[in-house]
Specification:
The protein has 178 residues and is of the alpha+beta class. It is 24% helix and 24% strand. The strands form 2 sheets. Strands 1, 2, 3, 4, 5 and 8 form a 6-stranded antiparallel β-sheet that branches. The protein is globular. Bound molecules: adenosine-5'-diphosphate and magnesium ion.
Length: 178
């Protein structure tokens, strides 16, 4: 990247179709090649139960941290291009998908446009987002409400990662589950 201002962004990844582990690994690789951007880090890969319709397979989730010179809208467009290239087809609300790439946080931007809500409106309700996000940045707060995300996680009434055991995680290089 050149000297243009760079933004710190967090991307949520999810998949539950066509070898979800491979799909998330593929998307992480694609993010590492995103234009005008640098993949700084990514979380472990987590297995979660579906939110919404229950007649669908379990998910693999992760969060990636990028530095990017793209605007938030250009980043969303780029992520949607990656989703299309990976074969995403919208089926039903909160339904199964080959890959989902959501902009969770874009610096501290707060916005509500027709195409983009920042921060992503569902972060604080989803342990499968909060746990990998906090793995990367334990002190993050919601830029809209000021609430610490670790407090949101502690108060969650509903769990999609197994609360009785440490989150199952997958080493993205070997595919080993621990
Ligand atoms: P889901 O809500 O299940 O992620 P989609 O991935 O199909 O469903 O996204 C639906 C729409 O959500 C997209 O067309 C996009 O414009 C909009 N959207 C609003 N805010 C965001 C955000 N922060 N990240 C990603 N998509 C967003
Ligand atoms: Mg999405």
């Amino acid at each position: 990247m050149n000297g243009i201002e760079a933004h710190t962004v967090y991307i949520g990844l999810g998949s539950n179709l066509d070898q979800p582990l491979v799909q998330v690994q593929h998307a992480l690789h694609a993010l590492s090649g995103l234009k005008d951007s640098e993949l700084v880090a990514h979380s472990r890969l987590y297995a979660s139960r579906p939110q919404g319709p229950q007649d669908q397979p379990d998910y693999v989730n992760a969060v990636a941290c990028l530095r990017t010179q793209l605007t938030s809208q250009a980043l969303l467009n780029a992520l949607q291009s990656l989703e299309q290239a990976q074969g995403k087809v919208k089926q039903r609300h909160w339904g199964e998908r080959v890959i989902d790439l959501d902009v969770l946080l874009f610096d501290d931007q707060v916005m509500d446009s027709d195409s983009l809500t920042l921060p992503h409106p569902c972060i604080a309700q989803r342990d499968f987002v909060l746990v990998p996000l906090l793995e990367l940045a334990p002190e993050l707060r919601c830029p809209r409400t000021g609430q610490a995300y670790h407090e949101a996680l502690a108060r969650l009434p509903e769990h999609f990662l197994d609360p009785c055991s440490p989150p199952r995680s997958v080493d993205p290089s070997s595919g080993a589950v621990s």
